[in-house]
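queue> pop job 88
queue> type: inverse folding (structure -> sequence)
queue> payload:
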């Protein structure tokens, strides 16, 4: 197969990375994509760094060797923090694009504002994340909050409804009376509940996530390496999941078109 026609592999700990896949398809509709979610082992955000690193390396190795991917997008903040540096050392000739919380655009656009960063527990513990927060600490009040329950709800396909509303009301209660200026979503599962977050807070707030920036970097890497697909037709998208059942593949399609 011509390398330019080979697929871009998008990896996540489960279904969250479909929020990144949506941006990739919107930006590069002619590319072919393979999406692989490790829902069998989700959530990653409550595991140790070693566990996340081992799972990520094994899954990426599968995508490169078995699915002949031309580029890898690690569409998971937790997996990016734990393993992307090792992946780049292991596969030096493969474009490997990670994702990180969109703190920079949030603090630059809401200078000296109150910025709430929602992420998984492991992302918040990682040194890479701490350094990112410290870099922009003087630009505003950056508040961090672990929200692991959102991942579990999205993995069940619950992007709205009473169970989600109850969780978000409890999580965000302190910020209903003391408004924030922006929210940074530090997990790719979280964009699927944007509507619930806005409804819970009850006031207008700007929400940032890293999906668009990741998609733009992927496009830049493909152009730089002459790997962009020249075919004028829309590309194909294939979904795979470690759980291996039909229901979760149907949910993948639903989330992609939500």
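queue> result:
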């Amino acid at each position: 197969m011509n390398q330019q026609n080979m697929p871009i592999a998008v990896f996540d700990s489960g279904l969250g990375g479909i929020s990144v896949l949506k941006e990739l398809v919107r930006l590069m509709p002619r590319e072919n994509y393979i999406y692989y979610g490790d829902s069998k082992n989700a959530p990653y955000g409550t595991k140790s760094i070693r566990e996340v690193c081992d799972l990520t390396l094994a899954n990426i190795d599968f995508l490169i060797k078995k699915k002949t991917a031309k580029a890898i997008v690690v569409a998971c903040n937790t997996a990016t923090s734990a393993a992307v540096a090792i992946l780049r050392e292991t596969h030096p000739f493969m474009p490997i694009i990670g994702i990180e919380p969109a703190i920079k655009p949030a603090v630059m656009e809401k200078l000296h504002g109150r910025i709430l960063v929602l992420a998984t527990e492991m992302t918040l513990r990682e040194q890479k994340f701490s350094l990112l927060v410290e870099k922009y600490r003087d630009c505003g009040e950056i508040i961090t909050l672990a929200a692991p329950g959102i991942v579990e709800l999205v993995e069940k396909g619950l992007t709205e409804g009473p169970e989600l509303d109850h969780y978000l009301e409890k999580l965000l209660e302190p910020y209903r009376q003391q408004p924030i200026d922006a929210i940074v979503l530090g997990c790719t599962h979280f964009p699927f509940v944007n509507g619930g977050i806005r409804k819970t807070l009850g006031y207008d707030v700007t929400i940032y996530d890293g999906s668009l920036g990741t998609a733009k970097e992927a496009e830049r890497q493909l152009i730089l390496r002459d790997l962009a697909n020249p075919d004028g037709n829309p590309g194909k998208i294939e979904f795979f999941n470690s759980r291996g059942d039909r229901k979760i593949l149907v949910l993948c399609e639903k989330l992609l078109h939500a």
